[in-house]
Amino acid sequence: MWVKTSGPHCIASALGLCLAVAGSPALGTEHGFDGIYSGKKVLTKGSAGPNCPEEDNVSITIYGQTLTFSDSTLRDFTEPFYPKSDGSFGQIYTGEGGPARYHGRIIGDSIDVDATGPLCEHHWHLKKAN
Q: In Å, what is the CA distance from 39 to each residue of 9, 87, 109?
């Protein structure tokens, strides 16, 4: 399910965000967060470079229990999505390329995410399209 980039690093290194399946779906939230969200991810820790961009455009599409995201490196990467009823979500990935984790929360029409990969950390701030 994990896709390697053309170089020796996994998606975790290239994007600063990895999505994995964990947890259970919250009742009644299957479609409560549906929509297209877009914004930026900003480097908060680590050295800027090809695997850790200082800033990058990001979009996330949520539909039911599916989350699809794209940035300058990856297009239409789809994973299961199981937020809690308060909008919080998070996962840990410990596969190839080193550990990566993310946690975030959807409040109203905004998503904020903190993502940590083996080389750097990013903060994502996205707004829902009207």
A: 24, 18, 12
- Predicted confidence at residue 26, as pLDDT, reads 44
pLDDT at 37: 97
Q: How far is it, in rounded angstroms, from Cα 94 to Cα 84?
A: 22
Percent of the residues in the chain that have a pLDDT greater than 90, as a whole number: 40
CA distance 11 to 120: 13
Strands (DSSP E) found in 16-119: 35-45, 55-63, 66-70, 77-80, 88-93, 100-107, 110-116
Domains plus CATH for the chain?
A: 11-128 (2.40.128)
